[in-house]
Amino acid sequence: MLVLTRKQNEVIRIGEDVQIVVVEIIGERVRMGVIAPRSVPVHREEIYRQIQEGGRDVKRVADSDVKANR
User: Fold this and answer.
1) Are residues 11 and 1 in the same domain?
2) Residues 46 and 60 in one domain
3) What are the 10-residue block averages of pLDDT along the chain, 70 residues in total?
4) Could you say which of 36, 47, 56, 59 would form a disulfide bridge with 40 (CB–CB 3.0 to 4.6 Å)?
5) Are residues 33 and 7 in the same domain?
6) Total domains, the chain
7) Predicted pLDDT of residue 50
8) Whole-model pTM?
9) How many CB atoms lie within 10 A of CB 1?
10) For 63, phi and psi rounded to 5 degrees?
11) Are residues 1 and 34 in the same domain?
12) DSSP H or E segment with residue 25
């Protein structure tokens, strides 16, 4: 595991196409943004696990949640 320290507005780059941006730090909570091509699925861990377990309804909810936040 690679462990990095970043400040607000700093970026972590994964390959050429994916960026993780530290959007905001409030107390112990960090808000991050992910910039990635639409072809790269991006999910929170708990949603990813539910999708892997066959929760197709979860995928629909996750997709609509992403569209609502764009």
Assistant:
1) yes
2) yes
3) 95 97 96 96 91 70 56
4) 36
5) yes
6) 2
7) 87
8) 0.69
9) 2
10) -65, -45
11) yes
12) strand 18-26
Q: Does residue 25 share a domain with residue 54?
A: no
Q: Is 30 in a helix, a strand, or coil?
A: strand
Residue 68 belongs to domain spanning: 40-70
9-47 per-residue burial string, b: 16 or more CB within 10 A, e: under 16: eeeeeeeeeeebbbeeeeeeeeeeeeeeeeeeeebeeeb
Model pLDDT, residue 54: 85
Considering the domain architecture, whether residues 1 and 33 belong to the same structural domain is answered as yes
Reported residue count of the chain is 70
CB 52 within 8 A of CB 33: no
Q: What is the largest CA-CA distance in the chain?
A: 37
